């Protein structure tokens, strides 16, 4: 590592035995002695500068690195020798080091700066880091800065950096506002997708629960050839079982079912129809009306909206089967509410 001497210059890096043959000059007049071979090996840009013939001959070879603080240039040159940078150096000079690493094509330092700056984003520096990330072609840092700014926009909007941006870089301001709009749309789509997925998973479980009731029987409802369970505790196999049993009991006894005047009966009718739409063994299925719904679909077909619902429920069942124990699959559609098989349930007294 270099050290300052009494004249204000920086001594030769320790560990380098070859003769210093070049001077780095900074904005503050600091002169950093270095080895051209080391600089050329670490940066192709510096290599091109070193091999380029000078406009005038001089016994002293120099490279000017201006526009950034002297200490940042010193840390940059040290990195070219050791490929190391401390946390404190990154904290103090990260923004300038990113600019230097981009200009002089030092990918190792650029990667380190991108990560370091992303970890140190604040309300005050978010706009500056975002601008620099765009200028220095650092997409990861740009995206993280955008997300940070979008999440903290009310506070960032009060900073001097944002006010300066509004007056001097309206295009970036527009990019930020568009990003925020798109992010909000993505959140809404995600929330809607989660709600829909939850609904399809509930319908999927309802299909399994219906099969369970129609083949095994449960606490208060079962198939005609089985007595309902004498146990009165709620079914622990499916969360939806108790509610579905109550719906079946209502459906089997409702006087308004045949003329379509009962919303609860319509819901049960849709569950039966949905089951039939996805059942692949209608001839052996014990769920009421399954085969009849199948025949009706073969004769008249299904509308596209219903087909879409069936596909999504089938997809949800496939997803749930990856995390739940394997169970038989059976599925459901619609038909005449007056059909006698509607009564193919045994209800507990």
UniProtKB/TrEMBL annotation:
Associated pathway: Protein modification; protein ubiquitination
Top-level taxon of the source organism: Eukaryota
SUPFAM superfamilies on file: POZ domain (SSF54695), TAZ domain (SSF57933)
Coiled-coil ranges per UniProt: none
InterPro entries: BT1/2/3/4/5 (IPR044513), BTB/POZ_dom (IPR000210), SKP1/BTB/POZ_sf (IPR011333), TAZ_dom_sf (IPR035898), Znf_TAZ (IPR000197)
Gene Ontology MF terms in the entry: calmodulin binding; zinc ion binding
One GO CC annotation: nucleus
GO terms (BP aspect): regulation of DNA-templated transcription; response to hormone; response to hydrogen peroxide; response to salicylic acid
Keywords, in A-Z order: Metal-binding, Ubl conjugation pathway, Zinc, Zinc-finger
Annotated ranges, domain BTB: 20-89
Protein name: BTB domain-containing protein
């Amino acid at each position: 590592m270099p050290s300052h001497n009494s004249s204000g210059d920086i001594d030769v890096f320790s560990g380098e035995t070859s003769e210093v043959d070049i001077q780095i000059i900074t904005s503050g007049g600091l002169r950093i002695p270095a080895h051209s071979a080391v600089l050329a090996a670490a940066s192709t840009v510096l290599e091109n500068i070193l091999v380029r013939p000078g406009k005038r001959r001089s016994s002293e070879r120099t490279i000017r690195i201006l526009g950034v603080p002297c200490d940042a240039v010193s840390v940059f040159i040290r990195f070219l020798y050791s490929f190391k940078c401390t946390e404190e150096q990154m904290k103090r000079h990260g923004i300038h080091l990113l600019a230097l690493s981009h200009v002089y094509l030092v990918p190792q330092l650029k990667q380190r700066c991108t990560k370091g700056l992303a970890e140190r984003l604040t309300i005050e520096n978010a706009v500056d880091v975002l601008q620099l990330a765009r200028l220095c072609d650092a997409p990861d840092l740009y995206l993280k800065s955008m997300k940070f700014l979008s999440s903290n926009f009310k506070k960032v909007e009060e900073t001097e950096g944002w006010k300066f941006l509004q007056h001097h870089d309206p295009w970036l301001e527009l990019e930020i506002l568009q990003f925020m709009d798109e992010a909000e749309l993505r959140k809404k789509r995600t929330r809607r997708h989660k709600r829909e997925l939850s609904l399809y998973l509930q319908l999927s479980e309802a299909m399994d629960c219906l099969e369970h009731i129609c083949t095994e029987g449960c606490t208060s409802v079962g198939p005609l050839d089985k007595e309902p369970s004498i146990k009165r505790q709620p079914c622990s196999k499916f969360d939806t079982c108790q509610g579905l049993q109550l719906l079946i009991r209502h459906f089997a006894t409702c006087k308004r079912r045949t003329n379509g005047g009962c919303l609860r009966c319509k819901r049960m009718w849709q569950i039966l129809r949905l089951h039939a739409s996805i059942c692949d063994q209608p001839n052996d299925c014990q769920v009421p009306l399954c085969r009849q719904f199948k025949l009706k679909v073969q004769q008249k077909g299904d509308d596209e909206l219903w087909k879409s619902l069936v596909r999504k429920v089938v997809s949800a069942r496939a997803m749930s089967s990856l995390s739940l124990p394997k169970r038989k699959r059976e599925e459901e559609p619609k038909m005449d509410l007056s059909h006698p098989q509607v009564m193919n349930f045994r209800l507990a007294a």
